[in-house]
Amino acid sequence: MWPRGDAVAVETPIPPRRPSAAKVRLLEVADRLFYAEGIHTVGIDRIISEAGVTKATFYKQYGSKDRLILEYIRGRDRQVRDSLTETAATSPSAEATLRTLVDAIVADLSRRDFRGCPFLNAAAEFADENHPVRRAIGEHRDWFTEFLESHLQRMGHPTPGAAADELYLLRDGAMGGGYAGDPIAAHTALHRAADRVLAEAKTKSGA
């Protein structure tokens, strides 16, 4: 019990402020254009025009194109993390999670608006590896690699770290080859190679 007469201040948590409609619209337009046409190709004036806002509004919400680009990368990162986290939570096994991931990559390759991996595309436009965009991409790739490794470890793979690197490289190759070349050949090769990596875990565990 608190001593009589003492008043206890209870802080009410302040919910995070929702971004303004203009800020959301600017990012949606930038996301579409950056992915479809390239980050450096698309100018701020075009984004402002298609978002239907003023230049003053843009600078109030983002301050610069660099900040908008960084938010684009972070938004794509959140999409991947949320999707994979949900897949892992609803899949019956670690293997099922990874196979669902492979199937999702194959589905991406088949989309009419597919333009390759947004992270690899963005990295190619920023030569300085210390640029905030490159660092954000690196953080995304580290998280993705750890996700793969943890699931391969749960499957009993003898070398989950190396296998995670291999699966990630397979994913990168399929995304690039599927866009620049034949998507059917890319997803066929991806399935075949991923099956081999996952089978190594089954052989080790005796499954």
UniProtKB/TrEMBL annotation:
DNA-binding region boundaries: 43-62
Residue span, HTH tetR-type domain: 20-80
SUPFAM superfamilies per the UniProt record, alphabetical: Homeodomain-like (SSF46689), Tetracyclin repressor-like, C-terminal domain (SSF48498)
Keyword Transport: no
Matching PROSITE patterns: HTH_TETR_2 (PS50977)
Alphabetical keyword list: DNA-binding, Transcription, Transcription regulation
One Pfam family, short name: TetR_N
GO molecular function, one term: DNA binding
Domain of life the protein comes from: Bacteria
Keyword Nucleus part of the UniProt annotation: no
Name of the protein in question: TetR/AcrR family transcriptional regulator
Species name: Amnibacterium flavum
